[in-house]
Task: structure prediction
Amino acid sequence: MMDAAIYYRSLSQELDALKGRVRYLIEDHHWLTDGEWKESVLRAVLRRHLPATVGVGRGFIVGPRGPSTQIDVLLYDASYPTVISSSLHPMQCERLLT
Result:
């Protein structure tokens, strides 16, 4: 039988190990790059563990009042078409998962 606690602990250890990789190389010389790396690690782990119907990316929400500021980790319904397919995803509000 699977031990869920051990499984989730190993995921936590994986995130801990990966999150510091850029910091170890550049120390505190460029916080933006360090933050972008950590966000990309989290998005990659989410992609591996969420069903294919859930898209994972970063982007903007386009609503009646215009676009939002950039959202670093965005979960959305992947069954809807993507407005622009790139590393940044502008999307309509109804695609968001709440």
